[in-house]
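Methods: example folding runs. The two proteins below were folded one after another, and each record is reproduced exactly as written to the output file, sequence line first and structure-token line second.
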Amino acid sequence: MTESEIEHRMTAITTACNNQKLSNNDRLYKTRIIDNVQNTICPLCLKKLSAEAFLINFFESGEKSDAEKDISQINLFYINQLKTGEFNHSPYNLAWGHQNCNMICKETGVIETIKWMKEVVVNTIIFNKDSSN
């Protein structure tokens, strides 16, 4: 693509997002979809997602290079998991993230998983403190 084509595409995408009310960066940040400089991040581990990780998802090759092996696969997952009787299948509830992070969240969602992870860490610290006595 030429620079002119890139600018045209960016303008068209921005306009479409604004028209559909999908460009609320404050909401995207608070929902853990982007970081403070508007990079796409994994909502669980908060690591920046690379463009290369997206490309690897879409262009599979038989043999993966060492660089490809170091990049976690990414997929879409819910910030708050879908629940019967609730309408939470919405754009601000869906984010790109690492496949492994998504598997950790399972049916509980990001925030509940973080609460569980905190409990695990606290229990481990207490256990290690008790076992050293």
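Second run, written to the same file directly after the first:
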Amino acid sequence: MILRAKTKELFKGKELTAKQRENSVINIEEMEKGETILKSYPRRLVFELTNACNLNCVMCGRNAADFRPTVFDMDLFYSFEPLMDSIEEVTLMGWGEPTIHPHFTEMLKTVNNHSARKYFCTNGMTLGKIKNAIFDYNVDVFAVSLDGATDETNGRIRRGSDINAISKELRDIVRIKRLYGLKYPWINFVFCAMESNLRELPDLVRLAADIGIEEVKVVYLTVFQENMRKESLWGKSREVADIFTEALTLGENLGVLLKLPHIQGQDIAGIKSHKDCYVVWRDFFLGSDGYVRPCMSTPVKFFPYDKTNHFMDIWNAAEFQRYREIVNCAGKMDISCERCYQSSHCNWNKKESFIQIGEQFAPKWSN
């Protein structure tokens, strides 16, 4: 069985409370009806804690855009506490490395006082510093980005990353998890597939099994710079299919789940601009610069978040209403949606999903 990235649902971890279930049921009903004014809260809060990073990955859009560093304001974070018993999940991720935020563990502690699940995506280089917090504050799920199964490949792509150090910390986290018979945290590797690392995917599955990682998720490289064009897997569907098949067979034998993108030409989106998008119903995204955006993979900025306003007035602002009306409508959606590269929702039949050279793909950050 091939797992696909979720477009409507979220990670199923600990059981939802009655309050969470009630909100989620209403939210899904409103989503499926295409309502533009919602009575429900979002099911997920997504906070970009910073757009800064402790690595310098060769493919990162940071090298092709003006990434003036911004940091998520803690007063804004605390203002969301009243929602954290109704929503399903708080996700800490965005353009930068969330764990380098000076108050990252304080955020985990705060969410842990409520019912929402806790999820973050990391490059893994700070796991040693946050390992205790993962268990102290009951982190439900986290993802570690690795772009090779060897330190040579991963280190060349994710400059500053150390696969041996990351593996050591992950082994210890898995050891603690097993020692106490815990179901959390669910851990997955996220692998950005490109020409020079694709053949290491089966070995990454082996590494995951050896460490005790439950899942390997694959996303295709989206190219933002001309010097990375040669790394694109656009037009290489036969080679990709062969490697995916090998990795799937290996995963089945070793007990590692594979979450894979569609092969070019086989995406369920067909000829549409993107898969049906539910983000502006399901998620509320707030950037590290304090601006509300429709999602993390767009240059569009709605407005600065004002914590003195009632959340539902913000959630149903004219900008959100407009996006709910047009995001899935051909000829009406914004240009950035027409060339969507968000890995869960984009159409992998389209060249624009693989190559964004010369496009404005990230927001402009203020000082």
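Comment on the second run: Residues 22 and 86 are 8 Å apart (CA to CA).
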